[in-house]
Write a structure and sequence with these properties.
Keywords: Cytoplasm, DNA-binding, Iron, Metal-binding, Repressor, Transcription, Transcription regulation, Zinc
Number of helices: 5
Radius of gyration: 18 Å
Subunit structure: Homodimer.
Subcellular location: Cytoplasm
Cofactor: Mn(2+); Fe(2+)
Order of helices and strands: HHHHEEEEHE
Structural class: alpha+beta
Strand content: 15-25%
Strand order of the largest sheet: 4-3-5
Distance between the termini: 35 Å
Family: Belongs to the Fur family.
Length: 158
């Protein structure tokens, strides 16, 4: 993504947040926008501890409680998506930006010999999954709005 597109996306997500806060009657604080911009500057999944450390390294004065509360707002506004990858961390939920992302699924690769320590998360999109979704909709007479699919494993020995 080029710099101009990034600035345009930044304006869009800021406006989405502004409208959401106004509709819900929440305060429009600069910390919320700073946290949002940090999240949308990331190229990977993150947890609250990751985000907190990043904010501290950049000398932002924001508490972990503020981050937790802001994460809940972003989830409800559709700006981020929550995942439970099964990792063994103090904060077991992972998040990713979601406003511009297309539907995708995840392959979670654990480090060999570890107790669910994640080595890598690979995002993928397989058109066959869309066919499965449509078959389920037809079989059960429903409309599926979204789904989450996770595969877990370790790398094969070479």
């Amino acid at each position: 993504m080029n710099n101009q597109q990034g600035q345009s996306n930044n304006q869009v997500i800021r406006e989405v947040l502004r409208q959401y806060l106004q509709e819900k009657g929440f305060r429009n604080t600069p910390e919320r926008y700073t946290i949002l911009e940090e999240i949308y500057g990331m190229e990977h999944h993150f947890n609250v501890d990751d985000l907190y450390l990043l904010m501290m390294q950049k000398k932002y004065h924001v508490s972990k409680a503020t981050i937790y509360n802001t994460i809940e707002i972003f989830l409800d506004a559709g700006l981020i998506r929550k995942h439970q990858f099964g990792e063994k961390t103090l904060t077991s939920s992972s998040y990713e930006k979601s406003y511009f992302d297309k539907q995708h699924d995840h392959l979670v690769i654990y480090k060999k010999g570890s107790d669910k320590e994640i080595e890598e998360i690979i995002e993928f999109c397989d058109p066959r999954i869309q066919g499965i979704k449509e078959a389920i909709e037809n079989a059960f007479g429903v409309n599926i709005d979204s789904h989450s699919l996770y595969f877990y494993g370790t790398k094969k020995d070479e």
